Each structure stands twice: as C-alpha cells, then as structure tokens.
C-alpha cells in the first residue's frame, strides 16, 4: 500500500514546525507490519530474514529490525559499521557486492559475519588469502547469476548475464570445486539476486529452480550446502502496481525446498521500509511557465533521486487543510538541473506554504541522498503511535563544510 503512513495519525504540521522540511517520516508500526508479513508467510520455513541495509541504513531503523530478530544484508564496510553501532547481530549478517575491498573483507572477518556472498573467482582467492593471514576460516556462499529476466527497470535488474553481478551460471560448479580446495574457506551456501521492485513472481521462482539444479549437481560431487539465499524481496505499490503475493511466493518456495535440508535466507529491503516512509516538503512557489505549471518545493533530487534516476512514480498528497483547485504541474525542486523533478504532469492542488507528502519514500530515498548544490541532508523522524523520535538531525551547513574547511589550510 502506498498509504502505510496513514496507519499512524501523523501530525504533519506539528512535525514540520518542530523539525522543518524537507523531513523524512517513518512509521514504526508499518515497518513491523511489513516484517510480520514475511515472517508469517514464510513461517514454516524458519527463514533468516536479512534486512538489506542499503534500502535505509538509519541506525534507529536498523536497531528496530535487529530487535525484531532480523539479520542484515550489507554491501560495504560502512554498512557493517552501521549494523554494529545499531546493536545488530554480526553472526546474522551477510556481505554482498561485487567490489569488496581487502579492508572490508578483513573488517568483516574480524566481526565474524555469517557469510560472504562471493561474486567472482578473484574475490574467492582474495578472501582465502586474507583469512589465512588472520588465521580464520571464512564462511562463503557463491552468488550465482541465473540469467533470468526480472522485468524491472534496467538499472535495478541484476540477474542477467549482461549484468556485473554474480558468478556466471555455467561456471558455478567449477567455482564451487575451486572454493572447496581453498583451505581458509568454508562453503556454506548459494545465493542469487535478480533485481529489485519485482512485480512478477515467475522470475523469482525460475531463479530458484535454476539454483536448485546446481544444488543437486553439487550434492552429486559431495559438496553439501547448508543454506540457500534468494536475495531481495518483492516489489511494492508506488502507484497501482500489481505486486506479488507473499503467501504465494512462500508456498512456491516451500514446495521447491521440501525434502531438502537447506536453511532459507531472504534479503528484503524495499518491501520492509518503502511504504513505511514519506518525505514531507513545503511548497515554496507556484510558477506558471509558458508551457507548464510548476510546483516548486523545498525538497529535490538530492533527497529523493528515484524520479530523476529511474523515472519512478511517487504519489504526492497535500496534507495541508485548506487547498486550492486542482491543476496539472510538474513538482520540482530548487536544484539547477532540468532532471530535478519529483513528479511530472501531476494533477495536484497546491499553493505556496502547503505541506506535501511524497509517499513511499522509506526505501532508497534517504539512503541515496547527497549534498548536491550544497544542500544539507534532511532530518528523519520515526513515529510510533502518539510518540515520535528524531532519528537523524537536519545536517547543518557547518557540518556539511567542516571536512573541506579543515583541509583549506593545506592549500
Ligand atoms: C544483493 C541484494 N540483496 C538485496 C537487495 C534488496 O532488494 P529489495 O530492496 O528489492 O528487497 C538488493 C537490491 O536490489 C541487492 O542488490
Ligand atoms: N536504488 C534502487 C534500488 C536499488 C537496489 C539495489 N540493488 C531504487 O530506488 O529503486
């Protein structure tokens, strides 16, 4: 649902008055409910749900998911640091990504993560060497590229052979055979991730079937795996998408895994937090251009990049009480790029000073934000019933500039 935030009675005006805008607002209850849906749908399989930190790595959000029993899917040493600071369990943390640096691998080994999702033979060799130096055995899973079309935006499709991710399907068996010869590795699993914002179940099932063919071939070679990781979660509703039913997904997975001794792992991000968050913004100006109307707001592509980057649709609600007649406009930010838009040709009622809520901005919004145009990062608030908590202060200009200012002397 795009309107998960409505499950809380959110005092938008009061929050805007207290913290200013732009402001990310998250519903704790909506996050819990989204996780419950996974836990209930997959209950019979007792999965390890590893929240994908990249979707939204705010420490308080990570702490909430950690308290609910989640593990974490990380893609950098920075994300591992977040998990640790939030009190997450590193033994439930898996490390994905094609470009893990030696420093990151060492950091992860020191912190005894659950496993590395290894994406190349070169990475296998590097992890083995570092583990040897540290006197450790690194648990590893191989991320296999199943060459399945996830039917999503090309920038977030990851399971095609043209994509940089994973070990090529036809090289998988040889890669496992090699891994078992490396003395500082312990092969524990197999994983794949075919893309994000998936609105169709069939590619997910096809990818699982292809993974299981490999599991069977490996068993014939006496390479027994402990777990299978199916990657990210299902897509969410931004507009009117027909998103997969989790119960149907779980039933198909249960059928395919039945009789096998494989622990299931899942790495959902968007579906746990996307609809639980919104971005509150104030209308600065209404402008009538020669061809178009513009609603100019105080948020921009630096706070929510998805419309500019993927032409993504986000619903926009006017949450101010007195509004005007509707008109058609582009909702744009102050950034000096024509690509800086939050919505195109949207029918909207808005006037200067109104508060607009850009919905479904819990995932890949704050976590992809930048300081472009020297804009300070927005504050974030977590709402729980009648309580709310500031979980990130609005960045100040002096914080934004401090690093470079401290280097000025050296020029
Ligand atoms: C390896 C990996 N795992 C998990 C995710 C999370 O995906 P989603 O947010 O669609 O659940 C991603 C993002 O696409 C990813 O690249
Ligand atoms: N940033 C993307 C999702 C990336 C998924 C990461 N593999 C989005 O907003 O839709």
UniProtKB/TrEMBL annotation:
Domain Orn/DAP/Arg decarboxylase 2 N-terminal intervals: 32-273
EC number annotated for this UniProt entry: 4.1.1.20
Pathway field: Amino-acid biosynthesis; L-lysine biosynthesis via DAP pathway; L-lysine from DL-2,6-diaminopimelate: step 1/1
The protein's required cofactors: pyridoxal 5'-phosphate
Domain of life where this protein originates: Bacteria
Orn/DAP/Arg decarboxylase 2 C-terminal domain location: 25-362
One Pfam family matching this protein: Orn_DAP_Arg_deC
GO BP: any one term: lysine biosynthetic process via diaminopimelate
Gene3D superfamilies according to UniProt: Alanine racemase, Lyase, Ornithine Decarboxylase, Chain A, domain 1
Keywords: Amino-acid biosynthesis, Decarboxylase, Lyase, Lysine biosynthesis, Pyridoxal phosphate
InterPro entries: Ala_racemase/Decarboxylase_C, DAP_deCOOHase_LysA, De-COase2_C, De-COase2_CS, De-COase2_N, Orn/DAP/Arg_de-COase, PLP-binding_barrel
Residue numbers binding substrate: 270, 306, 310, 337, 364
GO molecular function, one term: pyridoxal phosphate binding
SUPFAM superfamilies: Alanine racemase C-terminal domain-like, PLP-binding barrel
Record-listed N6-(pyridoxal phosphate)lysine modification sites: 54
Its job: Specifically catalyzes the decarboxylation of meso-diaminopimelate (meso-DAP) to L-lysine.
Family designation: Belongs to the Orn/Lys/Arg decarboxylase class-II family. LysA subfamily.
Complex and partners: Homodimer.
Name of the protein described by the UniProt record: Diaminopimelate decarboxylase
Organism listed in the record: Snodgrassella communis
């Amino acid at each position: 649902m795009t309107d998960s935030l409505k499950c809380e009675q959110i005092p938008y005006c009061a929050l805007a008055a207290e913290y200013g805008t732009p402001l990310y607002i998250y519903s704790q209850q909506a996050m819990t409910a989204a996780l419950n849906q996974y836990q209930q749908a997959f209950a019979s399989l007792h999965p390890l749900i590893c929240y994908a930190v990249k979707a939204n790595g705010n420490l308080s959000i990570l702490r909430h998911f950690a308290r609910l029993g989640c593990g974490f899917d990380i893609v950098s040493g920075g994300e591992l640091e977040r998990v640790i600071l939030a009190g997450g369990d590193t033994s439930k943390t898996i490390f994905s990504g094609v470009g893990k640096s030696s420093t990151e691998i060492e950091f992860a080994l020191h912190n005894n993560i659950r496993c590395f999702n290894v994406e190349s033979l070169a990475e296998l060799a590097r992890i083995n060497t570092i583990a040897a130096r540290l006197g450790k055995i690194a648990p590893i899973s191989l991320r296999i590229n199943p060459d399945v079309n996830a039917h999503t935006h090309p920038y977030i499709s990851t399971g095609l052979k043209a994509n940089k991710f994973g070990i090529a399907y036809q090289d998988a068996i040889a890669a496992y055979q090699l891994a078992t010869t490396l003395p500082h590795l312990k092969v524990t699993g197999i994983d794949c991730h075919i893309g994000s914002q998936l609105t169709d179940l069939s590619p997910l099932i096809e990818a699982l079937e292809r993974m299981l063919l490999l599991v069977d071939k490996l068993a014939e070679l006496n390479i027994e795996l402990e777990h299978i990781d199916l990657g990210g979660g299902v897509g969410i509703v931004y507009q009117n998408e027909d998103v997969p039913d989790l119960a149907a997904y779980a039933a198909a997975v249960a059928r395919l895994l039945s009789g096998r001794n494989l622990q299931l792992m899942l790495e959902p991000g968007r579906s746990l937090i996307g609809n639980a968050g919104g971005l509150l913004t104030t209308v600065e100006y209404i402008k009538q251009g020669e061809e178009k109307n513009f609603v100019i707001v105080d948020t921009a592509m630096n706070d929510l990049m998805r419309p500019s980057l993927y032409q993504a649709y986000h619903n926009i609600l006017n949450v101010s009480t007195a509004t005007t007649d509707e008109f058609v406009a582009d909702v744009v930010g102050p950034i000096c790029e024509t690509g800086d838009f939050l919505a195109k040709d949207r029918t909207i009622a808005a006037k200067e000073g109104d508060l607009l809520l850009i919905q479904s901005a819990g995932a890949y919004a704050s976590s992809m934000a930048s300081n472009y145009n020297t804009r300070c990062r927005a504050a974030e608030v977590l709402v729980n019933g009648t309580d709310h908590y500031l979980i990130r202060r609005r960045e100040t200009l002096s914080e934004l500039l401090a690093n470079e200012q401290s280097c000025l002397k050296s020029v």
